[in-house]
Model the fold of this input.
Amino acid sequence: MNAGTSRNAEVTPTTRWEADWWRSGVVYQIYPRSFADGNSDGVGDIAGITSRLPYLHKLGVDAVWLNPWYLSPLADGGYDVADYRQIDPRFGSLQDAEDLIKKAADMGIRVIVDIVPNHVSDQHPWFKAALASEPGSEERSRFWFHDGRDGDPTHMPTNWLSSFRGNTWTRTTNADGSPGQWYLHLFTPEQPDLNWNHPEVRTEHEEILKFWFDRGAAGVRVDSAVLIIKDPSLPDDPTLLDNPPPDASQPFVDLDEIHEVYQSWRTIADSYDPPRIIVGEVWLPDTNRFAAYLGSNEMHTAFNFDFMTRAWDPSELHSSITATLAAHAPVNAPATWVLSNHDVTRPVTRYGRTDTSFAFEKKRFGTPTDLVLGTRRARAAFLLCAALPGSLYIYQGDELGLPENEELPREVIEDPMYFRSEGVDPGRDGCRVPLPWEDDPKSNYGFSSEASSEQPWMPQPAWWGEYAVSRQEEDPQSMLWFYREALRLRREIEDFHGNDFEWCEDLPESCLGFRRGKVMCIVNFGQHEVPLLDLPILFSSEPVADSIGSDIAVWFTHRSTGEAGPKNKGV
Ligand code: GLC
Done:
């Protein structure tokens, strides 16, 4: 039964694991502002996405996840939502969104929308009303307004620090111009945090979920999912003390009360036919705390950031994969395999560096990068991910092997992470540059539908055309062909769909290898060639003759399950 209205658009499953498609589905992430520009104004939009559905269909994805497309001043790329029920006019209209969901469903592609429950835009009517109201008013109680600490109006209420660097409190100005209360924002001042102890905040989000589920959205991606509940006594953050106690935890991260919120969301998601899914942005180092968000009564899946941030190193990745699978098994949730997203450095760039791990704190302008090496490793990394049990996420442009654009003139940078770090952190715009579809600068490399008079909202580098879809279509060795072929095999080979997984223990230290039923994946991270197994090769990230070269992944067909281990010629 549909929990909402009768406008429940069909989500047509085409894959063979239909109802449980999310357990091993492939989800393509679209950053709407930079995917395709249907009206040639230099900003990506829904018309552009709709026009490129055949491309996504050919790539072989089961779903798309769209970064926020709602009405927004774009102070944080749309993660500052002014109205969840309206599409920002730069992206199109609600009708365009409904048409996209319908057309995508007709092609077997589900649409997952982004929900940002931790905060709203400072232009949201609730926040505007709160600013216009008195301290202690109902309007202010939906947020975290507070007087200064210990009776000192100039003193911030807590010492909490923002993950965008800097403070988490901004002082308001009263109508008469005098300084007023403070309000909390874990991100930028344009993103005031909601108070999830307020019942209206909860019911409003339940209505927002139904609004999008009723329009056929196949699920939601939950932004900053572990931050929404705060300790209402607003204690200082003990982790910032000089000698923090060993069990110190932040009073705004992963509080136990969070789970009842997502459990109520699951009830709503399950009341739809087909059931909708919930994917969490759960950045937590403790795998047990992470897994507590998953299972049959809470979220379906969550992003595997542990894997995404690890260095290109067999023991690092071995331990991350082992821990991931061990954490997911007891809650019967599928793992997710993610190489990047709109917040992090593109894989071909990251893997081409001396330090191949990812951390926001480490991002710096001018880090030396070997793109040839990075591209080779990114291909191998994709084959590794595509062979692992669980669902797979692809960030737009990674299938083209796009590097991070690190040549952006500083005056075009928009990301608040750059400004809040006073220009130390390059920010995230380098992975958000509008995609190249054609090798033609006149149409913004095919990003805009016509030879456009408008420049793209974020400039494209002069070498962008080399990565254009049109160029890659003509080259069977291209990243695009490689992604398509890997996804085709993953879809067609049954062994990839279940949970079967077994490490191959008898490989050289430089290698990682595992079996999935009759399929085996081996990656060589070392400098030296490793002799090939005497098994039929299904696919490889680079051509292989009689050995597996450095930074290459190979898929083999194992003779049959149950037979003695594979004949191994040399390792
Ligand atoms: C999430 C988003 C990121 C955004 C932040 C604040 O981490 O992925 O892009 O800036 O939340 O909403």
